Amino acid sequence: MADSPMWINALVVDATDPARLAAFWSELLGRPVVDRTGPYVWLRREMGMGLGFQQTAESKSGKNRMHFDISSPDPASEQQRVEALGGRRLEEYADGGFLVMADPEGNEFCIIPEGPVGLDSEGRAHYLS
Q1: Rounded to two decimals, what is the model's pTM?
Q2: Given the DSSP bridges, would you call strands 40-46 and 49-55 parallel, antiparallel or unpaired?
Q3: Distance between CA atoms of residues 117 and 127, nearest Å
Q4: Domain spanning 67-129 has what CATH number?
Q5: Stretch 92-115: mean pLDDT, rounded?
Q6: Neighbour count for residue 39 (Cβ, 10 Å)
Q7: What is the pLDDT of residue 4?
Q8: Which of 24, 30, 50, 68 could form a disulfide with 109, with the two C-beta atoms 3.0–4.6 Å apart?
Q9: Rounded distance between C-alpha atoms, residue 26 and residue 4, angstroms
């Protein structure tokens, strides 16, 4: 057995409309679409990590089991940009103190401030005013 470590090469998001979802994330992250192959649309690889969107017939249902945390120096202003791109804020998570958003297909992600995020004893953040 080889002693080489494994690493995450790419994150792939299921999508009913991968081109639309890739366009949203491309604009949000500043990573251009670089490839379209079969059911996949890929954004430019950065820091060794690929981000792709795979065509699926099923729509998202239920809460994500994994989500992205996106850092920003000003999370509140980024909320407006996400909404202008077709995303929305998920108010049902507001009690946790995190800015939880959804992309156009409903995939949850958080916009957090750069640097450490302080949490209280119940795991709630307090960076939103």
Answers
A1: 0.90
A2: antiparallel
A3: 7
A4: 3.10.180.10
A5: 95
A6: 13
A7: 79
A8: 68
A9: 32
What single letter denotes the amino acid at residue 110? C
Q: Give the Cα-Cα-Cα angle 91, 92, 94 (nearest 5 degrees).
A: 60
Considering the chain, tell me which residue range(s) the CATH 3.30.720.120 domain(s) occupy: 9-56
**Among candidates 68, 75, 1, 2, which has minimal Cα distance to 31?**
68
Alpha helical stretches, state H, the chain: 18-29, 75-84
pLDDT band for 129, please (50, 70, 90 cuts).
low
How many CA atoms within 13 Å lie on the side-chain side of 67? Answer: 18
Whole-angstrom distance, CA of residue 74 vs CA of residue 97:
15
Q: Check pLDDT > 60 for residue 71.
A: yes
Reply yes or no on whether the pLDDT at 81 is more than 60.
yes
Q: Are 9 and 16 in contact (CB under 8 A)?
A: no
Q: Does the pLDDT of residue 1 top 60, yes or no? A: no
Domain 9-56 fold is 3.30.720
pLDDT category at 128 given cuts 50, 70, 90 is confident
CB atoms within 10 A of CB 97: 18
Q: Boundaries of CATH 3.10.180.10 in the chain?
A: 67-129
